[in-house]
Design goal:
alpha/beta; 5 helices; 18% strand; disordered C terminus
Amino acid sequence: MANKIINAFVSHITEEEGDIPRLKAMMVRHGITARNYSITTDKFNNARNEDYIKGQILGPQIDQSSVLITHIAPGTKESKWVNWEIEYAHKHGKRIVGVWQRGARDCELPEALEKYADAVVGWNGESIINAINGESNHWYNQDGTTYSYRNIKRHPC
């Protein structure tokens, strides 16, 4: 069976960029090939103007994607860029899926992800694919337990 091909923007912090190829490989093994529209060090640019970066680089890349996948690792919560990417994706009607870093401990969700994610899942291929496809809107903690929905403002699906 051929893999389904999707356009995805993988929101992540540069320090954890090494997980992105592993995430994509796991997705392929479970039936989805993701064209990654996010900015990585191999597709780096030298832009310095924040408005230009948002309006001419990140925004158009997210616009071309059907889903925004947020890689949740230590330090992700503090990233202003990750939060901006999530908020932009939400405003433009994109499906938003959080994926906990494999084996990560003591990670917290970025504020925008807590507000707008459709699903938050562990490092598990089947769970990730179901979340991307909209077959699951479950929220899980890093340890696999059900996430507590404390005051989360969910957007309409």
